[in-house]
């Protein structure tokens, strides 16, 4: 397919094209000099060929006879698969080879949109979202000023307002921004809290204030600790609160640890409540946590990166009851709402804090003497300078589905999780990690191989059980038929964490996953 | 175009489609339920219609008879243009309307790829890069683990290695990561420096270490100060070093300020040298700064977000001489190399620091007992959790152009800047902000209206001159023919900052810009 016989073309850096497919197509990219003079015939032809490859990929993604992945080890891909060489070189490749590279990149990748891919919280391939992202790339602009992203800046403002309304804040003029992922959104929340209570940190640093302490649960996302380290609090000052057997914060332990910190002369600043933990899908009791935050005058953040989508569902939003009492909320539409990666919002109840916290007034970008209302420029409230347009795909999906469309899609995923739970809870081949109906789409379970079924609990059994999920996962990736994650948690041996966020998944896909685990685990 | 007459379709949430265009097309998105069962005929048809809109946009972007923008004030767009309503609603819109929304989003946006768009450091619309980004969206995966992004993770590793080689580091096993923009890359550099010298900050926070001080020039990017605020140093501990008339750091002032900080009992930690400042395009004297950093044992970071591209040019890379002595480098391919936003790398000379600094070992994501070599998982060295795939478009462009292609493209942009400088330096209508040939593609100048040409320097003249650029820029945006930025700098009145990073720009576009400034400024 990819011929690279040297041609006699004008520039020495050209590789030749396959004569059978050459017609409109130039041999290499640098012969597209017509672009500078407005000729786009060849580039458009090239893009159409790429689109053909992509649409073929989209078709196959939804075709269950296609594998989820074709696994290769790093050394295999690095050594170079047939015709696919990852190394970069001084001279250009032929455009024929570039098309082959595109095909191979998809071939050796993972189909995260496949209805049987359950490995991550972000799954699916929403077609409207995909169209939105293609448009975003084509527009190739930057969110920092209204000047060069007028439509996107307004879409972001309108969408953030809508999200704040759905959270339930009654004030009109809150704030927020789309950030590159939930970890950064959570980082923003801590910065906002610090600025609200100790604005002098901005100029004088953490050395100028008392020993500030952050609280989050032992089941919460590691990004709170990571932000604690980055922002200069130190991980020792990120106190982990105990959870009950369902992975929910125990409010009494939170209060005890706040008092303990105060006794040490430390200053409690911030509590993170999680709405939808990563592994168990647990919802912390926000009302009780909010009571404690009010009592001790602490900033309440709700990390609803994973659970935020449930706010769109009249049936499930009660699980986040009390979220309207938070001062800030992380909510990732790229998870439960099926928006393409990346799409994460940090919402802040009070306007002005993000701006105050991050503003540096760079004259070259945020000129106060522009001809339009510069309050629409967003760059001075971000920790980024340039900022990718994450809003459009989400806005377009919302237009195309309506709020009710998201509601239906989320309800459907939760029904599938209930189906899975009902299917395996009483079977001897499976053991649930915690009891009771799933609150989110997380269903956590062990597969118990024949050899362990009659064995009583013991360190040996736990040790053997710990190896089961990794073994099955390895076989699963080799066979490429489906993908699901596993991990240990606390002193619990490795277990499978099933999550469903792809509206293309059906009961038959759940059945398939369970059968596949049984098939792969039968001889363990 | 967008009919929304209610139809008698099965679901109550459907809006009707124009009967003339209905054929294959469903009326709303939720009638695509076939996707779940593997039928993708209608979604593929929809994507093809979007592609048609996008290719039309691409064609027009390179057509100089098309305007760069069709400017509207925020209130105008918010009130709703004909058929284009930004508000979100509960019910879905028809797919016809979704296509109209796509067209209108592009119509009211800014063509950053237009050969006459000079407003930002990131310009252009590279076709291979665009194809790469379309593929990236379609693959919709996440950089945190090899497991779900095997090809992209390896491409990143290979590209980072290549970039480190080009920087000139002789050690084999450095490190780096692609981050969401130069500001975050610069933030990483400060975190790395802090971890190298004071690893205890990770656990104990900034209160546990002496008063640490960062140094950067008064012309450097504001992200250094912003990171200083965020990471808990405080902006008072980000010391600004004086620059000469070309915007380059004065090494003697750096050394004096280091000594001053030490005298106060503070601890100098980190120096940022800029290779290509935002406004002047100045290159700090890295060799001299490196000497000072060695003398005082400080971390040297080079912010080459803008200037890094020149490393690809044998003719221009001497401007960054000494960069190989840095401990870390920021380099944004999305600027001078014309890669689509976002694409920014933080390169670190020593392996292990990013990992040590950011590692939290989340068990659910980075299982040590996976079947592949988990050292390829990248998530634990990032401050993000999920991370967008920024590498593919860049890798694909490199394949298609080769190193020599980037070199040619960058040399060409620099030649255009020289052309512009030569064109206006001796004309009475223009006054240069600093003397001498441009080192980068930044050309900074005042347009002097007739009324000010014979007026000697005075506060009144400066005050009037200060208003000239904003007025011309406002007229320019209203007419939509071209775009260039302006800003003040220090005590200098507003001036134009011309930058060229779009390889589609030609001398005729430079001529056009100058004529347009003269035309719009003739009556001022």
Automatic annotation (TrEMBL), chains A, B:
This is Glutamate decarboxylase 1. It catalyses: L-glutamate + H(+) = 4-aminobutanoate + CO2. GO terms for cellular component: cytoplasm; presynaptic active zone. It comes from Myotis myotis. It holds the Pfam family Pyridoxal_deC. GO terms for biological process: gamma-aminobutyric acid biosynthetic process. PROSITE patterns: DDC_GAD_HDC_YDC. The lineage of its organism: Eukaryota, Metazoa, Chordata, Craniata, Vertebrata. The modification N6-(pyridoxal phosphate)lysine is found at residue 335. Residues 1-22 are annotated as: Disordered. One of its GO terms (molecular function) is pyridoxal phosphate binding. Homodimer. Residues 1-13 have a biased composition (Low complexity).
């Amino acid at each position: 397919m990819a011929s690279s016989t040297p041609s006699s073309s004008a520039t020495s850096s050209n590789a030749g094209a396959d004569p059978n497919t050459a017609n409109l197509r130039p041999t290499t990219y640098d012969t597209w000099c017509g672009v500078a003079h407005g000729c786009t015939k060849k580039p458009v032809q090239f893009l159409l060929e790429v689109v053909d490859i992509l649409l073929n990929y989209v078709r196959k993604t939804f075709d269950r006879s296609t594998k989820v992945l074709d696994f290769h080890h790093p050394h295999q891909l690095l050594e170079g698969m047939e015709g696919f060489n990852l190394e970069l070189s001084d001279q250009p490749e032929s455009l024929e080879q570039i098309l082959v590279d595109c095909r191979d990149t998809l071939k050796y990748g993972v189909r995260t949109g496949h209805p049987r891919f359950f490995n991550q919280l972000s799954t699916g391939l929403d077609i409207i979202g995909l169209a939105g992202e293609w448009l975003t790339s084509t527009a190739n602009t930057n969110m920092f000023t209204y000047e060069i992203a007028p439509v996107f800046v307004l879409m972001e403002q309108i969408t953030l307002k809508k999200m704040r309304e759905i959270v339930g804040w009654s004030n009109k003029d809150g704030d927020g921004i789309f950030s590159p992922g939930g970890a950064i959104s959570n980082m923003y929340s801590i910065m906002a809290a610090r600025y609200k209570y100790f604005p002098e940190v901005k100029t004088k640093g953490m050395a100028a204030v008392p020993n500030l302490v952050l609280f989050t649960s032992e089941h919460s996302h590691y990004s709170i600790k990571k932000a604690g380290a980055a922002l200069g609090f130190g991980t020792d000052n990120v106190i982990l609160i105990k959870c009950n057997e369902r992975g929910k914060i125990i409010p009494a332990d939170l209060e005890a640890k706040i008092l303990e910190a105060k006794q040490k002369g430390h200053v409690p600043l911030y509590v993170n409540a999680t709405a939808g933990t990563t592994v168990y899908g647990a919802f912390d009791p926000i009302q009780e946590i909010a009571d404690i935050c009010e009592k001790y005058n602490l900033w309440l953040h709700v990390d609803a990166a994973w659970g935020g989508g449930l706010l769109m569902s009249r049936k499930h939003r009660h699980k986040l009851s009390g979220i309207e009492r938070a001062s800030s909320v992380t909510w990732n539409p790229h998870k439960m709402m099926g928006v393409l990666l990346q799409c994460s919002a940090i919402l802040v109840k009070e306007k002005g804090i993000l701006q105050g916290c991050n503003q540096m007034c760079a004259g070259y970008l945020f000129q106060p003497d522009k001809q339009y209302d510069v309050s629409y420029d967003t760059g001075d409230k971000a920790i980024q300078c340039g900022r990718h347009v994450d809003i459009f795909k989400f806005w377009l999906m919302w237009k195309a589905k309506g709020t009710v469309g998201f509601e239906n899609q989320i309800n459907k995923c939760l029904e599938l999780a209930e189906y899975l739970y009902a299917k395996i809870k009483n079977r001897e081949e499976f053991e649930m990690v915690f009891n009771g109906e799933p609150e989110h789409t997380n269903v956590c379970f062990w597969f118990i191989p024949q050899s362990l079924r009659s064995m009583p609990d013991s360190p040996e059994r736990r040790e053997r059980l710990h190896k089961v999920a990794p073994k099955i996962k390895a076989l699963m990736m080799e066979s490429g038929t489906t993908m699901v994650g596993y991990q240990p948690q606390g002193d619990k041996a490795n277990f499978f964490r099933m999550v469903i966020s792809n509206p293309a998944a059906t009961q038959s896909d759940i059945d398939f996953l369970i059968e596949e685990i049984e098939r792969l685990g039968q001889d363990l």
